[in-house]
Design goal:
8-stranded parallel barrel, alpha/beta, 13 helices, binds ligand G3I, about 375 residues
Length: about 375
């Protein structure tokens, strides 16, 4: 039988068996599997929104439906001097989000950390008055939010203002203005963009004290008639903290207030902590010790399996409460991007995110997809 006939017969068998007609299926991704559940987001670093990190960008486009800036909108970056803003990076970030049809969140308008040196002092270095700081906070929020009006869909208006015991963090904002800096921040943000969603964001939200403090805060904002759409539970978790039951209690307590719940900075460290539940206060750091960096050459199989199981438990919890959760954002794309490699101890090798250092999906990604398709 000549080659032509052979090919003809072969193709005919394929058609009959239905193989040839099978169009390769579009691979299911986190974004597609979770599309009708909640946004699945990630924090972007400058290498990504500037276009340099092509592998990271590939993963973002394939897997995620929402983005938040890891650092480029913090006041030290975006407002380095009182009469000078630098929107270079923030503009790139927003343009990247729009070009890829992603839900864009702004992070963060009022935070005690990463503030520019001028914010709390006058030209002589003397601490400013309550009135001056209110004006400065208003100018910052109004300028930044107005610039992205209608483009940034939600804002972390105030970040980490409540301590683990539920009391107010005694930040400069608190000490100079008092607790009303928080409602004022929400008011200014709403005035600048009446359609933007407004959030309160914090870490270690599974602690009962913090939970009660945030509940009281949200109630007070609502009692003042201020817009607050959501509470961000950052979700910087470890292998043995927090207890998932406590995390769920907080999730339910916030949802009970009639606001959306978002998991805003999710990562799961596999490394030993210098102290139990070290939270996520960037100010607390510790000396490097070899014993605290046990997996520099890779994760043992049993540790990897335990890490995967713990992540899966949390995603099962998020899917269980998908009616209350509007977004789950990972605090970075791949393990090499994670702040966890440098905090609370510098120079370590962590494995905190869903994609490995080669930007390949870890087994947890398929487990999440499978869970979402149940
Ligand atoms: O961009 C500068 C670079 O020019 C300079 O050479 C270098 C060395 O000084 O610093 C670079 O800035 C660093 C920045 O990350 C970007 O890499 C800052 O020093 C460093 O402090 C900053 O750390 C960030 C930290 O917040 C403090 O802003 C982490 O990447 C970021 O993951 C972390 O994220 C916070 C959330 O915003 C709020 N919730 C807690 C979370 C973890 O701390």
């Amino acid at each position: 039988m000549d080659m032509k006939k052979l090919l003809f017969v072969g193709f005919g068998c394929l058609l009959l068996s239905g193989c040839a007609s099978k169009v390769p299926e579009t691979p299911v991704t986190l974004k597609s599997a979770l599309a009708d559940k909640f946004y699945i987001g990630t924090a972007l670093n400058q290498a990504q929104f500037s276009g340099r990190d092509t592998e990271g960008i590939r993963v973002i486009r394939e897997q995620f439906s929402a983005v938040v800036p890891e650092n480029c909108m913090k006041s030290e970056v975006i407002h380095p001097e009182e009469d000078r803003y630098d929107f270079t990076q923030a503009d790139q970030f927003v343009a990247f989000g729009e070009a890829n049809d992603l839900f864009i969140t702004g992070h963060c308008l009022v935070w005690h950390s990463q503030t520019p040196p001028w914010l709390f002092v006058d030209a002589k270095g003397k601490e400013v008055s309550k009135e001056v700081l209110i004006e400065r906070m208003k100018a910052h929020i109004t300028t930044v939010v107005s610039r992205y009006k209608g483009r940034i869909k939600g804002w972390d208006v105030v970040n980490e203002a409540i301590l683990d015991d539920g009391s107010y963090r005694e930040s400069k904002f608190y000490k100079i203005i008092g607790e009303e800096f928080i409602p004022l921040a929400f008011q200014f943000a709403h005035e600048a963009d009446p359609d933007a969603e407004l959030y309160y964001n914090d870490y270690s939200m599974a602690f009962e004290g913090k939970r009660n403090g945030v509940v009281a805060l949200v109630k007070s904002l609502k009692a003042k008639g201020l817009r607050i759409d959501g509470v961000g539970m950052q979700g910087h978790i470890g292998m043995d903290y927090p207890a998932i039951e406590e995390f769920e209690k907080s999730l339910l307590a916030f949802a009970e207030l009639g606001v959306n719940v978002m998991i805003t900075e999710l990562d799961l460290t596999v490394l030993p902590s210098p102290k139990m539940d070290v939270g996520a206060d960037v100010a607390s750091t510790f000396e490097y010790q070899q014993t605290m960096n046990p997996y520099a050459d890779g994760l043992p199989e049993d540790v990897d399996a335990a890490w995967t199981a713990r992540y899966n438990e949390f995603f099962k919890l998020f899917l269980k409460h998908q009616d209350k959760i509007t977004r789950v954002t990972l605090w970075g794309v791949s393990d090499g991007d994670s702040w966890r490699n440098g905090w609370p101890i510098p120079g370590r090798t962590d494995y905190a995110l869903l994609f490995d250092r080669n930007h390949q999906p870890k087994p947890i990604v398929n487990l999440i997809i499978k869970e979402a398709q149940q």
